[in-house]
Amino acid sequence: MNFKEELQQRTAYAEEVIRKWLPEEEGFALTMAQAMNYSMCAGGKRLRPILLLETFRLFGGEGEVVEPFMAGIEMIHTHSLIHDDLPAIDNDDYRRGRLTTHKVYGEAMGVLSGVSLLNYAYETMLRAFSMTEDSVHVIRALQIMADRTGIYGMLGGQSVDVENDGKPIDKATLDYIYEHKTSALLEASMMTGAVLAGADEEQTKLIGEAASAIGLAFQIQDDILDVTCTSEELGKPAHSDEKNNKVTYVTLFGIEEASAQVKKFSEKAVEILDRLNNKNEFLEALVREMAERRK
Questions:
Q1: What's domain 3-292's superfamily in CATH?
Q2: I want to staple 85 with a disulfide (CB 3.0 to 4.6 A). Which of 61, 70, 100, 290 is the partner?
Q3: pTM for the model
Q4: What's the pLDDT tens digit per position in 134-177?
Q5: Which positions ≥6 away from 213 have C-beta within 8 Å?
Q6: Which of 162, 291, 295, 147 is nearest to 219 (CA)?
Q7: Section 50-54 average pLDDT
Q8: Cβ–Cβ < 8 Å for 96, 233
């Protein structure tokens, strides 16, 4: 398997799916639709929809019912990026190599387009009911998405992050932030893919544990890249953690120990995937790539 070629193909497919489900730029709400689509079409790795799709395939899933969930998870993720970049939070001017949404459309439209994307994600995913007769799996997938997105998931982690911005925090608090702000959406992606394909409760639970480990490895690697890469390499401001006085695994433990933690969590994720009877060579390679990436 040529991983780079396979990844390019899947990224292109995810991009095609995402654009297919975007709102029309028309009517009185034209500007908000443009702001939403500006952020959604800014590129990016599309890791969450790819993880969702590959877990769907891991359990033998077939058909287009997965598509609105692929688009929906990227809308949820992009909404969080729009709001992260706002002056009230990280106050960043660049994301994915170009101006952030609020710098192009204004702060008010940045807030509104982010909220609208979050809502539109569920509007999109609800359309899956018309694409399958298996409503039970769609309902369970929506429950997972909602749980991992709200106060007990991504937004809960974001709130703790914002509340402790610039303050000294311990490892337990930092882990809570990472497990909710980052891991939760990866859990949503992979668990949703598993459920839509018919995985049972035990299999779905294992996938959630693997996704949690992947999220921790991914976020800690992000901490490392923030201090070792340039803004040009990252496509966003480097050293932003230092600028915002954020506590990270690097500030708590140093780069060497942080790197060791990345390896530990990525190996844990692969070990869990190996325990499943189902195999997906590309998915395992992607997990390793996410932990070893350089941007």
A1: Farnesyl Diphosphate Synthase (1.10.600.10)
A2: 100
A3: 0.93
A4: 999 999 999 999 999 999 999 999 999 999 988 999 999 999 99
A5: 265, 266, 268, 269, 272
A6: 291
A7: 98
A8: no
